[in-house]
Amino acid sequence: MPEGLQPEIGQQNTSEVMLATLLHLMRRAREAASAASLRFVLVNESHALLPYRQAALWTSDQGVEALSGVSAVERQAPYVHWLERWCKQADSAATGAAGLDLRSLSGSDEWAGWQEWLPPFLAVIPLPSRDGFAGGRLVLAREKPFTPAELSMLQEWCDAWVQAYAALQPRRWLHPLHAAPTAGRKKRWLIRSGVVLAIALISVLPVRLTVLAPAELVPLDPAIIRAPMDGIIDDVLVSPNQRVASEQPLFAFDRVSLASRLEVAERSLTTIQAEYRRNAQRALFDPESKSELAVLQSQIAERQVEVEYLRELNQRSQVPAPREGVVLFEDAGDLIGRPVVTGERIMVVADEHKTQVEAWVSPADMVNLLPGNEVKLYLAADPVNPVSARISYVAHLAEQRPDGQFAYRVRAQLDEQGQPSTPRVGLKGTAKLEGETVSLIYWVLRRPWSGLRGWIGL
Q1: φ/ψ of residue 419, rounded to 5
Q2: Residue 183: what pLDDT?
Q3: Taking Cα atoms as reference points, which of 178, 197, 198 lies closest to residue 188?
Q4: pLDDT at 93 exceeding the cut of 80
Q5: Are 270 and 346 contacting, i.e. CB atoms less than 8 angstroms apart?
Q6: How many CB atoms within 10 Å of residue 341?
Q7: Which residue did the predictor score with more confidence, 306 or 9?
């Protein structure tokens, strides 16, 4: 082989070896399982691509993150302090790999003493910011200058490494704050200040404080049917949810005892009246009989009152509807044969088109609810079309519900009363009650802060 061709063949073999090494390093970067292993590959295994004595990885947000030949970076070491200070003040506008000669810094007092830490020749490869990676620099040092071919190969390897490293970084919703270091400290400060200002402005936006509570539609101004006397219900003359007319009989009491008591009272009255007439005739001839007439008159009046009372009770034994509407009660079978006392609630007669919302707010959710505040009732039967209402009454004391829980009773009148489309009485759902206007930050932190105070006792 001619002697002139041997250097060209040697250069070709060297280029092929470097290209194969570059492909091997790219594969190692893709196969790396963590960011720490990727940093190790960059500062240590890059030596297979070209020889160097020292390597350091510096990032804009973390500083010096990796050094060749050591497993962990000692943040307080003088070499690390010098390297971080140099990387922060180096030219940040460089877009490609560059070779530097530190001997040109010998006349500078600020960088004097570099010989203690580094060889004279450096290769500085900028690492662009990408996705979750803030950007930085790879610094290689050795005793002889880096050639343009070596710098070009290093740039290709670092570009591939940045892509693999960014893929391992966690996604941040505030990524622009961390991706901005290339624009300088001033731009980062402006971006962060803008984000803080925007959050502060959003946090003071006025919003309505709302609470959710179980609710149902109850009659508005219903007629409560109560027992007019002590007795036993003998018959129920209507069905649940039946529409009744005014004065229509609803239920009747057992009349057997009333009828017997009325018959005894009437017979007693007849007997006393007959005795009074006999003594009145005798009084014409017997003065002693005249003195008994006053006693008999008082007894007759007493018996007449008793008879009238029993007759009135007999009339009350059949209870009529006080007005037109729908009669509401659970089951007729539960009422028949049940003994009741005077004033006991039996059933309700209400207008099916006049309803109101009754909600139960738990003490933990109770806020300042004022009359007139808006209420939205989302019925389980029709959750798409909410029922609008306005608060009319808020209880001051919590009541115990059938499930054993205490809650505040809240009532709200519908915005459109008496309309044919008004939902019927008895439908249940969830009510959203609006309270006072508060800031957004208070709306977000009210429940967590209340729970924290209950837990820590502050």
Answers
A1: -85, 150
A2: 45
A3: 178
A4: no
A5: no
A6: 10
A7: 306
